[in-house]
Amino acid sequence: MSTVAIVAEYNPFHNGHKYHLDESKKLTGAEHAMAVMSGNFVQRGEPAVFNKLIRAEAAVRNGLDLVFELPVRFSTASAQDFAYASVEMINSLGIAEYLSFGAETDDINVLKKISDCLTNETASFKASLNDYLKEGNSFPKARSLALTEEFGEEYAEILSTPNNILAIEYLSALTKLDSNIRPVAVKRFGAGHDSDITDNKYASGKLIRESLKAGNESISTFIPEDISERPIFSSDIQSILNIELMKLQRNIDAPSEYSNILDITPDILNKLRNLSLPASYEDMIDSLKSKELTRSRICRVLIHLLLGIRDIKGIKYCPYATLLALRKDSSHLLRSINEKSDITIINKRSDYKPDSEYASALYIYDRLATDIYNLLFYSKTNINRPNELASNIVLV
Length: 396
Known about the structure:
The chain is α/β, with parallel strands linked by helices.
């Protein structure tokens, strides 16, 4: 029995995700599907719209067999670290024969050509990249311009969409890991990644999140099942983020306390120290934006500051995998993973004992991420949610 793996955020799980899952099984002939999913904070540097257990349950109810959590250190990281950690976890779990991802192009050869260039940088590409960075371009923009010089305009266009960027990083990770897992690209159709346009029963995750924020109940057209849950948005971290920034601004004599926060540079740290506070979440971002700083990078910096995430990496990025949701009749897959995996599988959270300082630090971030997310939810609903150690696997 073959298994296809997917890297996802499911923020929230919508009809486009259902299409990708169904197509992944169809293209590969796999009988089973598993996912490595971002937890309560996602790669854009934002809180997920619904908590990780609710999103994992929706995914299993719609065709997945198992969902594992990507540690928050990597779920909120750059595309390169996010992709590598996700693929490494899938590779470590030992049962996936395929890795399926959505992209604007399903031509694996084209994606692989770009991936190989970015993985094994030629002298000309590296020189062009450095030149464009020195001109003050953001890294994504500089990389796209350097790729244009290397291959031509049509290849640079491929790097203009988030899904293609991640697809290329997944391929790069498979190469670096010398993995036997076979990549499969499912071509996206209908509404674009961040599109404000709907296409029959398909809408982008961004449009669905914006509709939720506006209190628009029409999203039921675009999701497989209704979720009766109060959503969380970036603006909800505004108050506690102001507190963290005020602490930072008071600790001007202790720069080392903040200098190794993930994604922070001396220039960004100086900008954070000069923010006028208190400020709204959007005002913070507007004040920090510049030619070389993308919105996503700023959002990630703010989340890393809030969670205290340092730039830590182990020899193996993910030394454990936390199971979030499982289809009851797929328990044999979990047994197979327990036999083949070369990392720790966390089923009962309270029983997990990290076997290294790195694993312990990584798991502390995950626990704090759950605590902070639960605080955001409590502030909106007065409902207490279980902390990380008291959480249970969702069985469907």
